[in-house]
């Protein structure tokens, strides 16, 4: 099974909505930029029927360098998690 690529998504949007590929590409690029800027600002993003992207803070923690075994403190960071909506989960499981 191969992954769905941005190019394939653009082709499908173009075909299904009678748009030129460049119009579809602009639409996708705009959507992705909105998603990225929303998450980068620390806001959560919920798409009804699809799921919720959430920004979580990770505290600093103890770790070690696997190559040398040296103990170190890993910096805190922000991570994005995704929680699938019930409608999407049901659709995926119906396959």
Descriptive overview:
Helix 1 (6-16) packs across helix 2. The protein has three helices and five strands, in the order H-H-E-E-E-E-E-H. The chain is α+β, with helices and mostly antiparallel strands and 95 residues long. Strand 1 (45-47) and strand 2 form a beta hairpin. It has helices at residues 6-16, 21-40, 86-93; strands spanning 45-47, 51-58, 61-64, 71-74, 77-84. It has a single domain, classed as HU Protein, Chain A. The strands form two sheets. The chain has a three-stranded antiparallel sheet. A two-stranded antiparallel sheet has the order 3-4.
- Annotated CATH homologous superfamily: IHF-like DNA-binding proteins
What is Rg?
A: 19 Å
Poorly predicted sequence stretches spanning 5 or more consecutive residues: none
The domain tally reads 1
Number of helices: 3
Shape: elongated
The residue fraction in helices comes out at 40-55%
The description of the largest β-sheet is: 3 strands, antiparallel
Q: Report the strand count.
A: 5
Overall average residue pLDDT: 95
Derived from helix and strand composition plus strand pairing, the structural class reads alpha+beta
CATH topology: HU Protein, Chain A
Task: State the strand order across the main sheet.
Answer: 1-2-5
Strand content: 25-35%
Name the CATH class.
Few Secondary Structures
* Spatial gap, N to C terminus: 15 Å
